[in-house]
Amino acid sequence: MIYQGSCHCGAIQFEVEAPDEVEVENCNCSICNMTGFLHLIVPKRNFRLISGEENITTYTFNTGVAKHTFCKTCGIKPFYIPRSNPDGVDVNLRCLTTQPKTVTIVNFDGQNWEQHAHTVAHKSV
Fold first, then answer.
1. pLDDT number for residue 95
2. How far apart are CA 74 and CA 9, in angstroms?
3. Which positions ≥6 away from 88 have C-beta within 8 Å?
4. Which residue of 42, 66, 78, 101 has the fewest C-beta atoms within 10 A of its own C-beta?
């Protein structure tokens, strides 16, 4: 399935290929907890930015591996390059205009990231 997505104002448009039944992570780390991000991690080949590259700003912290991307206009973070899967893209399920048929939400202990990162490392393959 190809899903369309965007930031709130629509300046950033993208599409992502994912199954109609997905498992997403609800992470309790500081940034995910504050933004309400639901993680749909896909290989980079399954993600395509349609428009809005000029409207993206990037934030990094801690190790600098994760590239948190936000819309310069509305501030929404529709996707980013995750530390756990730097070879993939992590899409915010909440930013998809259509939703997969079945969504399973799994809690992820991002506050203790080093102990749990291996449980999602396979998602960008």
1. 97
2. 6
3. 41, 42, 43, 44, 81, 82, 123, 124
4. 101
- Are residues 15 and 4 in contact, defined by beta-carbon separation less than 8 angstroms? yes
Beta bridge partners of 43: 88
**Cα 4 from Cα 109, distance rounded (Å):** 28
Q: Could you state, in chain order, the average pLDDT of each consecutive group of 10 residues for the chain (125 residues)?
A: 98 98 94 92 97 96 88 97 93 96 94 88 89
Under 8 Å between Cβ of 26 and 36? no
What are the backbone dihedrals phi and psi of residue 57, each rounded to the nearest 5 degrees, phi first?
-120, 150
Reference 44, options 79, 92, 6, 7; nearest CA is 79
Alpha carbon distance 73, 113 (integer Å):
30
Neighbours of 70 (CB within 10 A): 19
Q: What domains are defined for the chain?
A: 2-124 (2.170.150.70)
